[in-house]
Amino acid sequence: MQMERLVMIPGPTPVAPSIRGQMARQVQAFGDPRFVADYRCLIDELGTLLRCDGQTFPLAGTGTLAMEMAIANTTTRGNAVLVVSNGFFGDRFIDICEGKGLVVDVLRAEWGDAVSPAAIAAQLAQKPYAAVTVSHVDTSTAVCAPIAEIGEVMKDFPDTLYIVDGVAATGGEFEDMAAMHIDVLLTASQKAFGVSPGLFVVWASAAAMQRRAALGTIPEYYVDMHRWLPVMQDPAKYFATPAINLVWAMLESCRIIAAEGYQARAARHAKNAAAAHAGFAAMGLSVLARAGLRASTLSCLLYPEGVDDARFRASLLDEGLIVAGGLGAYAGRMFRMGHMGNIDTNDMVVALAAVERALATCGAAPAPGAGVGAYLAALAT
Ligand SMILES: *Cc1c(COP(=O)(O)O)cnc(C)c1O
């Protein structure tokens, strides 16, 4: 029998029917007044959602391009940047910054842990930094950085811009640029917004836009905020073709988030993740991230003794579920499951039951229903 495959990797995440409907629409011209109004609406909604006092840029590209855009518009060759890395995606900023000729200092946590706000404060006091980068949720470890506390630290360093990678967080974990003192936030459509890949969003605070202005001409072209600014202020203008259907899809995602309420959505993610962790523990799987630092958008789960990664993930595929493998030193030792965006309790029950059957195939036999039972019990509390 041909089964639907439930996509439970940490992005792309399953796309809700109403969002799919937007992507299936006949395209419109980018100058069509109907599309211009929709694009304007998306820019405004995203800005309001994250409480951005500057400019919001929803553009065609992936999260990695958004990371480049953040660095390109806030730094210039020779500047010092502090990269706070809690895993693979934190490290990606090192390459981006070194490629641009920046002086890069790195504060790195053991995988499963996070760099403390105190350590960041101590480093910032050493010398002037143009910017600090932090991944809100590092998708290689499912560690959630304390971005609000780091924001408090940043208040003492007004000349250092606070850049947050929200690619696996924004729309799932709660974020508020104004309250958390974030200067540049970035995300991509395929993670907690639950849209197909292809659109990214960069939010730049008023302070970040001032920095961009102070830089004058920059070498980058497509990601230059000043080339996009006239379009963001009047989407009837052209610089490069917007991803028309993804703009609509993202707008529908914003409507879904607004209808639930961002805080309620984040609380739902947190409750679901805690319940899922109880379910995984009941099946003998342990969570990599330290308690208190666990993301609610995905989990990294270490195998019990004797379970082979390749065999487990192949069995899971047979059960209709796809998850991601571990990265770095954790390749072969764990798997990563996304549980963000518009997935619901039914999806989670299916996912936990499939994990249980795959574990049984691999010789680790949890009691039938153990994971689902623990998950549902935790949800009910
Ligand atoms: C997925 C991800 C990225 C990269 O996004 P792409 O859309 O794959 O380019 C960057 N940072 C984090 C935290 C991510 O989860």
Give me some keywords for this one.
single chain, 381 residues, alpha/beta, 7-stranded mixed β-sheet, 4-stranded antiparallel β-sheet, 14 helices, 15 strands, 42% helix, globular, binds pyridoxal-5'-phosphate
Write a structural description.
The chain is of the alpha/beta class and 381 residues long. Helix content is 42%, strand content 16%. It is built from 14 helices and 15 strands. The strands form four sheets. A seven-stranded mixed sheet has the order 2-10-9-8-5-3-4, with helices on both faces. Strands 11-12-15-14 form a four-stranded antiparallel sheet, covered by helices on one side. A hairpin with an 8-residue loop joins strand 14 (324-325) and strand 15. It is globular, with a radius of gyration of 21 Å. The relative contact order is 0.17. Pyridoxal-5'-phosphate (PLP) binds at residues 11, 62-64, 89, 135, 138-139, 165, 167-168, 188.
